Amino acid sequence: MGYGNNQVLDKEPNSIKLKYVKLGYHYLISNAMYLFLVPLTLALAYNLSVEDFIHLFDHLKLNLVIVILCTMLTVISATLYFMSRPRQVYLLNFACYKPDSSNLCTRKTFIQQTRLVKDFTEESLAFQKKILERSGYGEKTYASKAHLEIPMFDLSVKAARKEAEQVMFGAIDELLAKTGVMSNDIGILIVNCSLFNPTPSLSAMVMNRYKLRGNIASYNLSGMGCSAGLISIDLAKRLLQVRPNTYALVVSMESLTLNGYVGNSRSMLIPNCLFRMGAAAVLLSNRSSDRRHSKYQLVHTLRTHKGADDKGYHCVFQKEDPDKRLGVALSKDLLAVAGEALKNNITTLGPLVLPISEQILFLVNLIARKILKMKMKQYVPDFKLAFEHFCIHAGGRAVLDELEKNLQLSEWHMEPSRMTLYRFGNTSSSSLWYELAYMEAKGRIKKGDRAWQIGFGSGFKCNSAVWRALRTIDLANEKNNPWMGEIDHFPVHVPEVSPIDF
């Protein structure tokens, strides 16, 4: 035992030295241009006399026409460049819906309500209890009232509409109150919900409630899973590029009422245990005058789709079980597919966001492995050099564990995702915004900080959005943050297994 401890202690100094060597290398490469130009400029200035400057000025006077033409060409080129640039997209604010206590669903309540469904066998009930004990969930997640009522339960379209109205309108009301934007100023509306798709659509429900203008560009995205929130952001960005001086309202939600599975197929029972109630509303703008009022600027969006691969296409699949009961099945290949999708996504994203020092290391490693055929591990770029904050979809504990390992993130970086999973559960596409709200409530967001949102969803899809903070977020000036009043209680320790006494 003592020998093992000595080995660990012996290795620690080397790892610390390696860390500082890499940090020094990063700063050296990142500032190489300045380190080269500053001495060169000083050397030139030292060797030039006053007479040299006078001679240069006289030469310019003799070639005044050329100087004027060059200046005009520069001004015209700069004007054309700025006019042809894509419009900047700003996030004015966002709101996450926090249900009241009537929707509270403790783990014991979940098991109790599940037992009221007579279709479940004892083995299925024990399996769901086991999943929940290892889920990383706390005692304050929320569920729809249809799933909490006794006797169980009103599985009607009317009840599902009521749930959708509750979460969507709750989030939008808070958002409009925060921003002060009038509903008739909104020119783009995008609502995403994967499994509940009524007629008229959810976007039409929003149109009717807030009396939005008739020429609004309205979209309703369905069947796109937990990554649909970032797909909506990407769609809004593209629309804002071609529609000047307007606002885009994005609403991300999922409906639980009609989507509970009441069979005994284990792969289809897992979503029953994981999904919880929640929604988020986001207001984007392309007006340059809104920059000073906005929280974030959208820097990049990137979408990766693995639908051409059969494993990716079938790993999250809505279907009927052998008893013709509808549900969503999760494949055992899910983590492997998610890892491959993430790899493809960050391979494209990396050159856009990583410092040149990391890109050089990645390129050298690639050449050594692929061309020189050297046996060495693939180099994983340090994305902590590109981003200060990470919002990883709180889809489940196993997904978070896998990404923490693959991206080499610390507990501090994973805290927003793990605490969101603990406090609110998997709220599908809106979970990323509860995580960003957690960072704001903790006072982590400083001006200039970069945040990376990563979403995964059926199809299979991995999507990214990169934001830059335009100002330091002060919780004292914030309204209706879902973590207000309880943020000081977090983070909490979440055990690997938390037994449910029932």
Secondary structure: elements and pairs:
Layout: H1 2-30, H2 32-47, H3 50-62, H4 64-84, E1 90-96, E2 104-105, H5 107-115, H6 122-133, E3 141-142, H7 145-148, H8 157-179, E4 186-192, H9 202-210, E5 217-221, H10 228-242, E6 247-253, H11 266-274, E7 279-285, E8 296-305, H12 310-314, E9 316-320, E10 326-330, H13 334-353, H14 356-370, E11 389-392, H15 397-406, H16 411-424, H17 431-441, E12 450-457, E13 461-469
Parallel strand pairs: 4-5, 4-6, 11-12
Antiparallel strand pairs: 1-7, 1-8, 2-3, 6-7, 8-13, 9-10, 12-13
Q: Which structural traits does this protein have?
A:
502 residues; nine-stranded mixed sheet
Description of the structure:
With 502 residues, this protein is α+β, with helices and mostly antiparallel strands. The protein has 17 helices and 13 strands. It has helices at residues 2-30, 32-47, 50-62, 64-84, 107-115, 122-133, 145-148, 157-179, 202-210, 228-242, 266-274, 310-314, 334-353, 356-370, 397-406, 411-424, 431-441; strands spanning 90-96, 104-105, 141-142, 186-192, 217-221, 247-253, 279-285, 296-305, 316-320, 326-330, 389-392, 450-457, 461-469. Strands 5-4-6-7-1-8-13-12-11 form a 9-stranded mixed sheet, with helices on both faces. Strands 2-3 form a two-stranded antiparallel sheet. A two-stranded antiparallel sheet has the order 9-10. It is globular and about 95 Å long.
